[in-house]
């Protein structure tokens, strides 16, 4: 299995009036082709900073990001990003939102329509093609955002807590949907979350980050069947992996909850 994404000794230092703050320190990780990799850690551990650097939205202080062995600097269409905020154009329909990036690429109307049909079906939004974002639930909006990103066929999908704003039940439904999409498309995914259940339910491997500065504490291979549903949440294998991560993050979680620096 070939390595799709790699970071080498990534560091990020923010310079402020009250001094320097190291957000992440010597972060080394790999994501293999068609792999679903999770990064889990408490609030403030630098997960979003790390993903923004990988996505080209922020510059690292030192270190390197490699995609298919080539150094990348700045954003690019080969890295598709999905955020917690849906970032949909409110004046465009579901179909037109999904087609937007394809239109910018110069794709013909018939090709755009075919691609939109494919991804609308993939995320289960048939019948809502002409709906505006204001007519959709939060989960449906996020389905549109995922479909729009996948339609551009990125080499890797970067997801920044995309289900964080959803209620608990909708969140699990979306997790199952994303797991199904991953199996059907073999998309390479790097997904950050503070939710341990989410990390174990979705991930092939999980990078566990510590706080202040954010470093890789451990890497865990998830030994669960590829096809996972909400029923997986109560299996012994799931609970064993969850406990391992909880024990690892307990001190960080306590500090984060109480607003203490570690």
Question: Describe it for me?
Answer:
The structure is a single chain. The chain has 262 residues and is an alpha/beta fold. It contains seven helices and ten strands. Strands 6-7-8-3-9-10 form a six-stranded mixed sheet, sandwiched between helices. A four-stranded antiparallel sheet has the order 2-1-4-5, covered by helices on one side. A hairpin with a 2-residue loop joins strand 1 and strand 2. Helix 2 packs across helix 3, helix 2 runs parallel beside helix 4 and helix 6 runs antiparallel to helix 7. The longest helix has 23 residues, at 236-258. The relative contact order is 0.17. The model has no long low-confidence stretch (mean pLDDT 91).
Q: Kindly state the mean pLDDT as a whole number?
A: 91
Rg over C-alpha atoms, rounded to the nearest angstrom: 19 Å
Helix count from the secondary structure assignment? 7
Helix amount, in percent? 25-40%
Q: Name the strands of the widest sheet in spatial order.
A: 6-7-8-3-9-10
* Largest sheet entry: 6 strands, mixed
* Number of DSSP-assigned strands: 10
In terms of structural class, how would the helical and strand content be classed?
A: alpha/beta
Shape: globular
What is the strand content?
25-35%
In angstroms, what separates the terminal alpha carbons? 38 Å
Low-confidence spans: pLDDT under 50, at least 5 residues? none
Compressed to H and E, one letter per element, the order equals EEEHEEEHHHEHEHEEH
